[in-house]
Amino acid sequence: MVKAPVAASAIALMLAAPWAAHAQDPSASELARVRDEMKALQRSYEERMQALEKRLNDAEARAAKSETSAAPAPAAQSDASTALPAAAQPTPAPVAASAVPAQNAFNPAISLILQGTYARTSRDPNNFVINGFVPSGGEVGPPPRSFGLGESELVFTANVDPYFRGALVASLAPDNAVSVEEAYFQTIALPQGLTLKGGRFLSGIGYQNEIHQHAWDFQDAPLAYQAFLGGRYQQDGLQLRWVAPTPVFVELGGEIASGRSFPGSDSNKNGAGSAALFAHVGGDIGESYAWRTGVSYLRTSARNRTYDDVNAAGAAVTNSFTGRSRVWIVDGVLKWSPNGNSTYTNVKLQGEYFRARQDGDFTFDQAGAALTDGLRLAQSGWYAQSVYQFLPRWRVGYRYDALSRGTVNIGVVTSGAATLADFPALAVHNPTRNTAMLDFNPSEFSRLRLQLAADKSRLGATDNQILLQYIHSLGPHGAHRF
Amino acid sequence: MITSLTRALVAATVLLTATPAFAALNILACEPEWASLAKELGGDKVNVSAATTAMQDPHRIEARPSLIARARSADLMVCTGAELEIGWAPLLQSQSGNSKIQPGQPGHFEAAAQVALIEVPTRVDRSMGDVHPAGNPHLHLDPANVARVATALGERMAQLDRGEAAGYRERTRSFLERWSQATARWQKEAAPLKGMPVVVYHKDNSYLVKWLGLREVGSLEPKPGLPPTTAHLSDLLAQLGKDPAKAVLRSTYNDPRPAEFIAQRANIPAVMLPYTVGGTEKAKDLFGLYDDTIARLLAAQK
Known about the structure:
heterodimer; A: alpha+beta; 16-stranded antiparallel β-barrel; 17 strands; disordered N terminus; B: alpha/beta; Rossmann fold; 2 domains; 8 strands; globular
């Protein structure tokens, strides 16, 4: 914003230059200045050309010497310049010559995540439900029994041009389906701390939502994410973020998107089906602690969002919901490491609290009885987890999940047209889960994990789970979010 | 929805960015050595903050909210480059929303682009550990490199803050003069260290080893970036039996235990080197860093 008028006046100056010369007007000194700058620019280009030529010669000389030398540094140059005074020397040649063929130089950075599990569960994972909550149809529940392949992720990122960065995260599911996890552009040249993102992306709500599954501290998502967001919330739309120019980290963001995924659904209308707002603040406490906390709000609308259930008589039915959903999230994370050096030991505490409301019309047994009345849900849930790296390669963690069924007001039950027994998915139940994990990280790029869980998502049943998991990252060193 | 959101954001922006325009150049240095250099070259014309301390491993920093907040207001980000900060600096750039410090902008300065790196691998594969394809990035432990970086950084600061350009150039000239005198003194002092066999922790002292002519006979890390294992340490001990070293070197942020394990068994001193500014009491600036490093090595050699 500051630059725009400067650029505009520069252009104006250029356009006006021929006239100004004729008119001998007072901007003559201005012109002389511009001329000087042009000369300086020319000089700097000449210097760069010389540097490039030198690099080329060096590279050729090195190639000629063959690649046997383990320390290919131009030692002579180093010794010569030790003598100094460096001030008298020309600016040295930038960047070591790269061996990448030119046609590949602009290829995006590619990385690949490989994952897999071995699972033992005391209950059939195919019957997984979170009783008391509307099934999301998302990626929820434990992985399949025995050996199972996890999601393989393929990540491509690069700058598009000086204005945009692009990224694609493709997920290859074990059933051979390919899905687009994220595919977005992001601005890199907006002024004043603004960033606009567009395409499909993980919503900025909450804390864990933006973290990719392979970087989670447990194999699965917290129950609150599974119940209220179907695992995690993806948006197809636009996101605007603003970071405040303050010493304390303050970030505000807003999203408008299609809202096709749970708790919304494809509503086939022109406007935005979902909108989200979030605010995050964070900072350090001394050198050893870092924290971040935030509040988020997500609003979505659903039209004929269906789920399958079994009625009181034991027959399969499909119920549908049309209305709006709102989710509020409060999140917090605190990390500790001695003097901020997390290499040897560190502790991470993380927790989020969710409140979710759904209001609208609810149709019981769409294909049969098709009874329609209101539905009002006011539910909540939270989790807290801690991970402790006690040795350079070893981490141990514990997580507690709890969901509260809260208010479930089904119109057709209140009116007596159906009974609660017709809605086993919404049975009266407050799920909880205890999860413990131990992971071993041979390097920054590989992780082997043992996870034990006692999952009381189902009414009257505990699912005891034992999971072994591997996660491997191939390719460029990925940067992980805080 | 979006219009009201945009309006609110614009209003907030106007309110919060109404800071005086004559403020000094804000510099965020990725490591303390560059923060120290920027202070030398910028004096009171710059506000310098270092993203990391000497107690922290520059490979393994998290893009903490406080760092994103500092990156947001930076006019110039001075980093080592060569993938040293690959795990965190790109996030500071993409999450701060600061267009000035994006790669390729004048506000993004990489020291590694100013010097010839050593230990450039001819083959790159992760089975070799966490190798840096562009070469060893711990370049500030060769005084010639510091001089080259200073020349380029001083010019960059002059380019970004044209009003004060003469001041930056004058300070750079003065720094280079003092640096060249100090370098001559260090080379004289450190002459007895030539050929001294040492065990290093990580490849972070390679430039120092090369500059002083030390002889690196082994490394505590089995492969770059992998923590020392007992198997590797016992192999190293056996090797030291045949080819003894005079000292085990480690940096402030390294775990002291593996170095002491070897030191006790091989009966040689374990020497903690400051590695960067702030690493020891005496390493208050770049001059102190070199003074103290050489003093500690000389003490170990006796």
